[in-house]
Amino acid sequence: MAVKINSAFLKGFIQENELSLIAPACELAHNALHSGNGAGNDFLGWLNLPQNYDKSEFARIKESAAKIRANSEVVIVLGIGGSYLGARAVIEAIKGSLYNSTATPQLYFAGNSLSPAYMNEVLSLVKDKEFSVIVVSKSGTTTETALAFRVFKQIIEKRYGEAGAKERIFAITDKSRGTLKTLADEKGYETFVIPDDVGGRYSVLTAVGLLPIAVAGCDIDALMAGAGAAMADTANPDLNCNDCYKYVAVRNILLRKGFAIEMLVSYENSFMMMNEWFKQLFGESEGKDGKGLFPASAIFSTDLHSLGQYIQDGSNIIFETVLWFKETESDFFLENDPGNSDGLNFLSGQNMSNVSEKAFQGTLLAHTEGNTPNIVLELPKPDEFELGYLIYFFEKACAVSGYILGVNPFDQPGVESYKKNMFALLGKPGFEEEKAALLAKLQ
């Protein structure tokens, strides 16, 4: 019941003495993190969250989830970045990427883009359906989410009235201030807290992720238990007994050797959004001051037919971190075809999981022979406990890696640049001078 690193496919890329040489840096980063003396130390609430989470709020989350499930055919979750990626990642990993075809209620995510076409698509999903809205925003003014909430709030109030709306709108926001908190208190919405000391991309194990995950019917007790196990297992900075830190060490050694891109790989379609969560976590945390690995992702064997050629024979700037589950949630038995027109009868009489495993093994051999290092992270099976463990594992690895790089892994100053330009070009009050300068550049 843990993430275990398999280093067999790093031979020739990493030497044992290199792990010994980087071990002191890992320990220094660990100490900075746990002492609270490192950069961004006001955002360390996630570190002990699996033990210190608000138990009364956790109970309210389960109560509200039951209420939403009982009175809604469709639930729209509004949020962007960390305010939706973690929740969607866990739900799809547990329930499958096609879960909405049979789910009750169906969950859809909006407020994460400015596409009018997508907005209209989501609006069509609640037509003539009983629905509820979960809005996730610390400030309540994030453009993408606030615009979407304005639209859905108007629809829900028109359909159910003010009194009915407060039974169907749930706000996850700041505990005491901000536009959304003020509105929620005024309207009487059920509210949950985004802790001040937990940044968005580390927030999946707070109400931000837990409420949508519970609404989808996932076991959030098991999710938190898995995170708690990871918290205990990663408490010792010794690389010999901490696979999380061994992963940190290996990825940083590979970066120093010129492997600038880390590609997270899974053999499960349902992990596509987990890949997206991973990319936000590491991209926003490490990508600053001209430093950091570029986080990419792939689903195999699908992407072997699109990216496989580059990985095998292209520039040697990629290493792969492969998630491999030893057990599947379900399997498929391959029967014999009397005609054998496709020539695949050699696969008859076995489970599809065996075919997938051989593809996994064959790919490891091919890619490492093509000079692409492979870190294999082995997990027992894709259930709530193991997902909770994996989430904490990656959060801890990300924080420690950031400190080794010498960056603050908890801020994202570069994200604000596009916002300022967008506000100026849209004519937001106070941005008049910037607008003129930007328009001149666009000529």
Structure in words:
By secondary structure, the chain is an alpha/beta fold. The protein has helices spanning 16-35, 49-52, 55-71, 85-95, 116-125, 143-165, 179-187, 207-215, 220-233, 243-256, 272-286, 308-313, 352-369, 384-405, 415-426, 432-442; strands spanning 4-6, 74-78, 106-110, 131-136, 169-173, 190-193, 261-266, 294-299, 318-325, 333-334, 350-351, 374-379. Helix 1 crosses helix 14, helix 3 runs parallel beside helix 8 (207-215) and helix 10 (243-256) packs across helix 14. The chain is globular.
Order of helices and strands: EHHHEHEHEHEHEHHHEHEHEEEHEHHH
Spans of 5+ residues with little confidence (pLDDT < 50)?
none
Count the E strands: 12
Oligomer: single chain
Label the structural class: alpha/beta
N/C terminus separation: 58 Å
Task: Indicate the percent of residues in helices.
Answer: 40-55%
* CA-based gyration radius: 23 Å
Largest beta-sheet characterization: 5 strands, mixed
What is the mean predicted local confidence, pLDDT?
Answer: 93
Determine the number of helices (DSSP H or I, runs of at least 4 residues): 16
